[in-house]
Design brief:
Layout: H1 4-17, E1 23-24, H2 25-32, H3 36-48, E2 52-55, E3 60-63, H4 65-77
Antiparallel strand pairs: 1-3, 2-3
Helix pairs in contact: 2-3
Length: 94
Amino acid sequence: MEDTSTTSKIAKVLEYLKDGKWHTVEELREKMEVNENQIQQIIAFLSEYNFIIANQAEKKVKLEEAIQKFLTQTATSEGTSNLYKPSKKPCPFQ
């Protein structure tokens, strides 16, 4: 299990990437105030679990579209009494 500080750093990266734009690895490293090894580990983790799309040639990353949509919807729902808003799609298990 990840320690709290690593989990916190991952959460900060996800929050920063929530705008859906491409960001350079260097930009992330500077904004998150982590070293090169730490940002590489975070990016590897997020990439392995398909949270981000990585452009290796340009050393840029952005959130995978479904993750970005989820985080945006979660953020706009915070503070409301109805955090769950039913989907219009039927449950796949029915």
